[in-house]
Structure formats: C-alpha cells, structure tokens
Amino acid sequence: MLIKESHADVQIVANGKETSMRIFLFHPTIPGYPNARFPGVVLFSEIYQVTGPVARFARQIAGQGYIVAAPSSYHDFTGPEPLAYDVPGTDQGNEWKVVKTLESYDEDSYKTVDYLLSLPTCTGRVGTTGMCLGGHLALRASLDPRITACVAYFATDVHSRTLGPNDGPNGSSTIESTSNHTLDKLSNIKGEVAMIFGIKDTHVPDAGRDLIRLKLREAGVCFSFHEFAWSQHAFIRDELSKGRYDPAITKACFEVLLEMFGRVLKTDLGEADGKKQEVEHVC
Burial level of 7, CB count in 10 A (0-12/13-18/19+)? Predict the structure, then answer.
C-alpha cells in the first residue's frame, strides 16, 4: 500500500502553558479510491522523539492500512526535531522524560486521538503502539476508552512509577488510590493490550516485568504478555542500537501487532456482550 506523509501542528495546553505539538502523519493511499477509510494508530516514540527508526516503523504500519500519527513528545521544551542517538541526546531525553508532567503526556495523547478522529478518512477505531518511553505512553494512552488496542514494546518506568516528576522508584505491588501513575490506573483500560519485552532488558528487570503482569491481571485487563529470551532493550531499533537490534525477533513482534490490530481495529466486532468466557477443559 502506498503512503502519503505530512504533518500537523496542534496546540497543547497543560500545566497552564500553551505549546505547539507536531504530529507526523503517515497515511495509506489506494490509487483510484480517494474516499478509502482506515483505522488510526498513535505511535509514541522513544526518548529521542520521531527519529529515522520510528518513522520507518510508522511506514511499516501505515503500509498495512492504518493512519499512523506520531506526536513529538518534547514540545514543552524544544521543537519537533529528533534528538541524536548519542550521550548528549540520551541525557537530554532522559532529563525531559521526568520533567514533563503526566498531565502534559495525557494531553498529548488525547489531542493526537482527537486529530485522528477528525480525519474523514479515519474509521473511528484507534490503537496505540510505541517503544521504550513510547511503550509506556502507548499503555498509558489506553486509559482513554477510545483506544481499543495497544501493543507496547519494552515499556519503561511503568514498574517503578518513574514517568514524569516523581519521588524515586516505587515498585510496590499495592495500588495507591491517590496515585496518577500508570501502574495504579490499569483498571481504567477497556481495550486489549499486548506487552512485549526482552528478558535481557536491563531497563525493565525480571521483577519489574512480573509486577506489570501481576497488576494487569489484578486489574482485569484483557492482555497478552510476550518475553523473548535473548532480546535486550531497544531490540527493534534498526539504527545505532548499540548491538541490540534483532531483526528476526522484530519480525515476530510485528506479527503480534498485525494480528491484534487486524482483529480489533479492522474487524467490526460490534459491542462486547460482557459475558464471561467459559473455556472447556479438554485434551
């Protein structure tokens, strides 16, 4: 499927401050069918904003028949240009990641979904995906009931409650009723979620992944949980990945994404009946 690329600048108001956020748009096109309609996907980037690898990932998804919108998360501090995959870029991205507030992250997500739904070529069904910081943002965006499918790659800072301003890592398994951290709000998710991790990921260790799985289950979320034995953090990044890029596992994970998005976003499922599914115990 062919792709048309463009961008839109939308105004964001959060914490009493108004800024302009650029949304990079990757839109599928079918020659001869100008009124073709497609589901939408919000693609959240890692801490470097919308880089070459993120744009290539967006094109892969768009080529399968989805309108992909990739917001520039750090509009609070800088323009839409990507940060470099070097030490200064990494340090800057990690600094802004915790200075930016959860209110600002949430407004970014909400406005991006608004933008997709405003397009006459969008069917009205929207999913999310992302990697690293973006994996967390994809999961957090699913707190919005308009999101019905989420595929989150190696989501950081979920298990430790360290996205946005925080008092330090908190890996408690007890839900904090007043907390606005993603881990404590999972029961708000109404769609389906797929979490993807590498077991060798030093950013989200065994205990952290186990905690995320536990809290998803306790929250009653419909989810699948994928862990790959030899994969490290950033294993889908095909550029400057510090030796971690694994194209074979990346391909397998993309099939996970296509299966869920195809079933949930492209199929007209109608309203869920809410009935508990009883599974027959057979051999």
Answer: middle
201 is catalytic: yes
Return averaged pLDDT per consecutive 10 residues of the chain, 283 residues in all.
97 95 98 95 98 98 98 97 96 97 98 98 98 98 98 98 94 87 97 98 97 97 98 94 95 98 87 80 90
The residue annotated as part of the active site, out of 27, 75, 136, 233, is: 233
Residue 20 · residue 11 · CB < 8 Å: yes
The whole-number pLDDT of residue 278 equals: 87
Residue with tokens 């995959």: 85
Under a CB-based contact definition with an 8 Å cutoff, are residues 252 and 227 in contact?
no
Is 157 annotated in the active site? Answer: no
In the set 106, 108, 157, 201, the catalytic residue is: 201
Residues 145, 149: Cα–Cα separation, whole Å: 10
Comparing CA positions, the residue from 98, 77, 93, 92 lying closest to residue 21 is: 77
Which listed residue (76, 106, 108, 132) is catalytic?
132
Is 233 annotated as catalytic? Answer: yes
Q: Is the pTM of this model over 0.85?
A: yes
pLDDT of residue 276: 80
> Running DSSP on this structure, what letter comes out for residue 171?
-
Which uninterrupted H or E stretch holds 116?
helix 102-118
